[in-house]
Design goal:
Rossmann fold, NADP binding, binds nicotinamide-adenine-dinucleotide, aspartate dehydrogenase [NAD(P)+] activity, alpha/beta, Asp/hSer_DH_NAD-bd, globular, Dihydrodipicolinate Reductase, domain 2
Length: 352
């Protein structure tokens, strides 16, 4: 687990989340429960109802000061998972739903209290919200991202949207102007912190990522995969820059987008992406990362990501998003300091 934070807009630094936790439990706003000496009198229960347990770190329990209000934008696989988890466990971890929006409101009616349903997304400003979580489509990031940041912190679930340099610049500027934070989760990227370190030290020479999935898992905007048959095997659909690939496969290459952000000196144009359709991959997605440095240095990783047939999101990513929300909750109690992490990837934070 690790995190990346910004000390000032545009500059990224990486930190081990464990380092942060061990260095600054108190400064993070957590209050450690004192060990009771044997025979000591029973303490008064905590009366401040706003304080909630947010985690059990190395067997010590820490308390968050306030509840974080979350707006969920999108009610597909990820959105539904996050909503259910906040409804079931939010009270214990300091998270509360501010609103849920989906383009088809009918999907929400049976599973949510009506006061949580937002019918018109433009009405998000009428709800007190700390963090808006986009889990639907990059187009929503483009249309609403800047407005979201004028009102709340913003976790971009579809970072492929940031392959548009103008949009990335606009989001950074909005975060700065409104003193809000833009969070970018890494999804299925493995080794993002190491990529980031090499990037920062100027030793990252090349980065390429191949994502292979069953054809039913691809959502492509061009006819790269208009016809396929079960059993046809492996087909390379695209190989080239991640900048060009993101608009072609906006829902499938968020991991590559996160890598391009970590490798900021190469950027979306300098990082190579390949997508492969493979009918043998009915049970999992494959993510292969190849990093190249000086004097023959190279690292290759292969991540096997169990996934349901037809799903754009691997199973592990659900918990990863949940971990991100918990880390955002931790970050919130830290004025001026940034901490954010995922159990299996980076969560990057842009400007506070
Ligand atoms: N950051 C990451 O690592 C990561 C990992 C997995 C998925 N994602 C992204 O998160 C998003 C949600 O993933 P999911 O698994 O829940 O997908 P999903 O397909 O199950 O759900 C997407 C939801 O968004 C809605 N939607 C689609 N296009 C829309 C549009 N143009 N405007 C408004 N709503 C729209 C759909 O109706 C659906 O309800 C996707 O963009 C996906 O690419 C990111």
């Amino acid at each position: 687990m690790y995190s990346i934070h910004t000390s000032r807009a545009g500059d990224l630094e990486s930190l081990s989340a464990l380092d942060i936790i061990s260095k600054s439990k108190e400064s993070l706003g957590f209050k450690q429960r004192q060990q009771k000496p044997k025979g000591a009198q029973k303490k008064e229960p905590v009366r401040n109802r706003e304080k909630v347990k947010i985690g059990n770190l190395q067997n010590n329990i820490y308390m968050a000061e306030k509840v974080l209000k979350i707006g969920i934008v999108g009610y597909g696989h990820l959105g539904r998972f996050l909503v259910e988890r906040i409804l079931n466990e939010g009270g214990e971890v300091g998270l509360q739903l501010a609103f849920v929006w989906n383009r088809n409101t009918d999907k929400l009616k049976d599973s949510l209290p009506k006061e949580l349903i937002l019918h018109d997304l433009s009405d998000f400003t009428k709800r007190a919200t700390d963090v808006i979580v986009e889990v639907c489509h990059p187009l929503i990031v483009k249309e609403f991202g800047v407005r979201f940041l004028s009102h709340a912190n913003f976790l971009v679930g579809s970072p492929s949207a940031l392959s548009d340099p103008q949009l990335e610049q606009d989001l950074r500027a909005a975060a700065k102007q409104h003193a809000k934070t833009l969070y970018v989760p890494s999804g299925a990227l493995w080794g993002g912190q190491d990529i980031q370190k090499m990037n920062d030290s100027g030793t990252l020479q090349a980065l390429s990522i191949r994502m292979s999935k069953h054809p039913s898992c691809f959502r492509l905007t061009r006819g790269l995969l208009s016809h396929w048959t079960e059993g046809e095997g492996r087909r390379v659909l695209y190989n080239g820059s991640v900048a060009e690939l993101c608009p072609i496969a906006p829902n499938n290459v968020n991991t590559m987008a996160a890598a391009a952000i970590a490798a900021s000196k190469l950027g979306f144009h300098g990082v190579t992406g390949e997508i492969v359709s493979d009918t043998a991959l009915a049970d999992y997605h494959l993510v292969e990362v190849e990093v190249t440095g000086p004097d023959g240095f190279s690292v290759k990783t292969v991540r096997q990501n169990p996934a349901k047939l037809g799903a754009v999101t691997g199973n592990a990513t659900y918990n990863s998003f949940w971990s991100s929300l918990l880390e955002v909750q931790s970050a919130r109690v830290t004025e001026g300091e940034c901490i954010s992490a995922e159990s299996n990837g980076l969560l990057q934070k842009e400007h506070k």
